[in-house]
Design a protein that fits this description.
This is Phytochrome sensor protein. Strand 4 (about 175-180) and strand 5 form a beta hairpin. It contains 17 helices and 11 strands. It has helices spanning about 20-35, 45-55, 70-80, 85-95, 120-125, 140-145, 145-155, 205-235, 270-285, 290-295, 305-320, 335-345, 350-355, 370-390, 390-400, 405-415, 425-440, and strands at about 105-110, 115-120, 160, 175-180, 190-195, 245-250, 255-260, 265, 325, 330, 335.
Length: about 450
């Protein structure tokens, strides 16, 4: 179409025959030869974004973008973000019909972090395999060419059709996005994005996104006026501040670290084990008797009085408002990094779970209850990685000490790697060595 907007991916509303093939050929030329002259089949806005992605060191076949925020951190960040009050507008104009329209709606901050990802459940589940999830950072310099990231980089609405994405794992998707500014200060707040199939790259979807941005900015202007009126009336009493829940970190650590409102506390190994066991019991809505903790904490026969003495010292250390007795139990929520990884696995966010796994649960502990938690997490994480059949995840898993002798995982990694991958040789060699060792 002559005179078509350079920001539109598919001016005719659908890809022309051979477009995908020509785009992929141009992309292959760029990533293998460096920076050849631009191809006529590639829009200038896309070609320039590809070159920026190449210059930023984005791997066209690499793993998904990092997940910067999870759980309480994500919830707190979203609640404080300027776009949180206008989320109902976005849901009313885009999200309510997203499932029927086979679309995902995402809202990012100005740095490209996904704040909310809503819409078609089946598509969201598929998108999680490339870390298109709340908390992940999709800025262009990290994730390569993509509509929200490129819209933020250029501060302009833009569409990216399938093979226009820089990273190949994202090329089955198309997206339309537009930046959002504060209507009074002009500060860039983030972007609104719609992601789905080819139909999302048609002109009317970008029009819909831009109309939603206009409605959001109008709502922000009204909220700003209301805030000014409230300020003129005088200050209101500050709401009570809820202290953050204590957090227990046990993954990859010889001893647990407990983070309390007053600061972090490094626990002894025995106190690490006891507090973790109480956290595991609390996750099941239970407490523990002294005898139960003795059995879970010591491999041999240990007098309950010994455990009782350790628990008394633990309660003095962390406070009896956290650990109660008769039975021993947690009196308030205690977040653990172990539970955070399990929640990610339950959601199918395998890459994010692997990001949050620095190592096994208290690796020096021989306590039966801790060993069970360690074994269950490794089994769940390994199973999810192997089932994903994603080479980048399998490579990361087989690089961990837990998988050094796991021939089945190395075999799955070899089968998942493309035929031309330079990593196949090292994987095949290690697998051969494992097989020779097992026959010896």
């Amino acid at each position: 179409m002559t005179g078509a907007s350079p920001w539109l991916a598919l001016p005719e509303g659908r890809p022309t025959p051979g477009l995908t093939r020509r785009l992929r050929a141009a992309h292959e030329t760029l990533v293998t030869r460096g920076a050849p002259p631009p191809r006529p089949d590639v829009r200038s806005v896309v070609w320039d974004s590809w070159r920026r992605s190449l210059g930023s060191g984005v791997d066209p076949d690499g793993q998904g973008p990092p997940v910067d925020l999870l759980d309480d951190d994500l919830a707190a960040y979203r609640a404080a973000h300027p776009l949180a009050p206008v989320l109902p507008v976005i849901r009313r104009l885009l999200v309510e019909d997203a499932e029927a329209d086979r679309m995902i709606v995402a809202v990012t901050d100005a740095d490209g972090r996904m704040l909310w990802v809503e819409g078609d459940r089946r598509l969201r589940s598929l998108a999680e395999t490339m870390n298109f999830v709340a908390g992940a950072r999709w800025s262009e310099e990290v994730a390569g060419t993509n509509a929200p990231g490129t819209a933020l980089a250029l501060d302009h609405p833009v569409q990216i059709y399938g093979s226009e994405h820089y990273r190949r794992p994202v090329q089955p998707w198309s997206c339309s996005a537009a930046p959002v500014h504060h209507p009074v200060t002009g500060v860039l707040l983030g972007a609104i994005d719609v992601t789905g199939g080819d139909h999302v790259a048609s002109p009317h979807v970008l029009t819909l996104v831009r109309a939603t941005v206009a409605a959001v900015e109008s709502e922000l202007r009204w909220l700003h006026r209301e805030e000014q009126r409230d300020a003129a009336r005088g200050p209101r009493p500050a709401p009570p501040v809820r202290p953050a829940a204590p957090r227990l970190d046990v993954l990859g650590r010889e001893r647990a670290r407990l983070t309390l409102p007053g600061g972090p506390v490094e626990l002894s190994l025995r106190h690490s084990e006891l507090l973790l066991l109480l956290a595991e019991a609390a996750a099941a809505g239970e407490g523990r008797s002294t005898e139960q903790l003795a059995a879970e904490c010591h491999a041999g026969d240990t007098a309950a009085v010994t455990v009782r003495a350790e628990l008394s010292r633990l309660r003095r250390l962390v406070g009896d408002d956290l650990v109660g007795s008769r039975p021993y139990r947690l009196l308030r929520p205690l977040e653990t990094d172990l539970e955070a990884v399990r929640r990610l696995l339950d959601r199918g966010a395998v890459a994010a779970a692997l990001d949050r796994y620095p190592g096994p649960v208290l690796p020096r502990s021989t306590a039966p209850g801790v060993a069970l938690a360690r074994r269950r997490l490794v089994t769940a994480l390994r199973g999810a990685v192997v089932a994903s059949r994603r080479p980048e995840l399998l490579l990361r898993w087989t690089a961990l000490p837990e998988a050094r002798d796991d021939a089945a995982a190395w075999q799955a990694c070899l089968e998942a790697l493309p035929a031309g991958s330079p990593r196949r040789g090292a994987v095949a060699a290690h697998l051969l060595a494992l097989r020779r060792t097992s026959r010896a």
